[in-house]
Amino acid sequence: MMRIVLGGVRGTSPVSHSDFMRYGGATTSVLVEDGTGARLVIDGGTGLRTLQPRLAAAGENSPILMLFTHYHLDHLIGLPSFAPLFKADWHVTFAAPERENFTVEDALTRLMDKPFWPAAFRARQRFHVLPETPGKMPLRHGSLMIRWCPVHHRNGCHAYRIDEPGTGASAVFATDLEWRASDDAERGLLLSLCRDPNPADVLIMDGQYDARDAARFTGWGHSMWQDAVQVATSAGVGRLIVTHHAPESDDGILERREQELRRVMAQACLAYGGMEIEIGKKA
Ligand SMILES: [Zn+2]
Ligand SMILES: [Zn+2]
Fold this sequence. Notes:
With 283 residues, this protein is of the alpha/beta class. The chain has a single domain, classed as Ribonuclease Z/Hydroxyacylglutathione hydrolase-like (Metallo-beta-lactamase, Chain A), CATH 3.60.15. It has six helices and 14 strands. The strands form two sheets. A seven-stranded mixed β-sheet has the order 6-5-4-3-2-1-14. Strands 7-8-9-10-11-12-13 form a seven-stranded mixed β-sheet. Strand 10, helix 3 (184-195) and strand 11 (202-206) form a beta-alpha-beta unit. The protein is globular. The model has no long low-confidence stretch (mean pLDDT 95). Residues 11, 28, 72, 74-75, 176, 244 line the site of one zinc ion. One zinc ion (ZN) is lined by residues 70, 72, 153, 176, 221.
């Protein structure tokens, strides 16, 4: 069984206010656990803090894989205060494709250097530059198989698909992408990630905006929630979770959006901080 925990689901910047309690204000960070105890994290936004107790328990016996979709700050800013990275007995592998000639090591070294932060990671670290697409060589972590593709976003971004072959569980995480500005090749890559070799059980996708505001947000690098419905429907994915909510979208706006979303796709919802999803048969 694969378990996904959405530590943070906010885009652009974290927010904290009583009007944002239901969906949460922490930025993107996602934990995926397989049935054998292997853990991987996608992105290190402030939602890492929510995931910290589950990850800290892993310690030296269970190396963590941290994947990055891209290096915009809302996806990194939880790292400098993520306590396990300052423990010498902790093992972590950071992995991502190179983006605009920056490797994951370049990005994290810069983030953790003065004048931005005074303390260096003490955990045992490895850096792994992934190819632009995995070709026939998916990455493996525990019983999880990981594939990815580039998506349309300013400075580049990648979507990841995680499969657990033993249970048939599969999920695609596709944040920070502008579907309407994507060309045919970019659309084809994401659709094929979602539907090959079989339609994923769940798609978690950027739907920061509403199509009524499309003209205002053209070129901003994000999708409308209606685009996420289109991608899920086209790829035959039965369950959709829309994420990367704008910092301006308070609980009232998001509750109304979720009702509208459910009217067009019954198996769809908006992501909220701390949301847990279990997919695949129990081992
Ligand atoms: Zn973002
Ligand atoms: Zn971004």
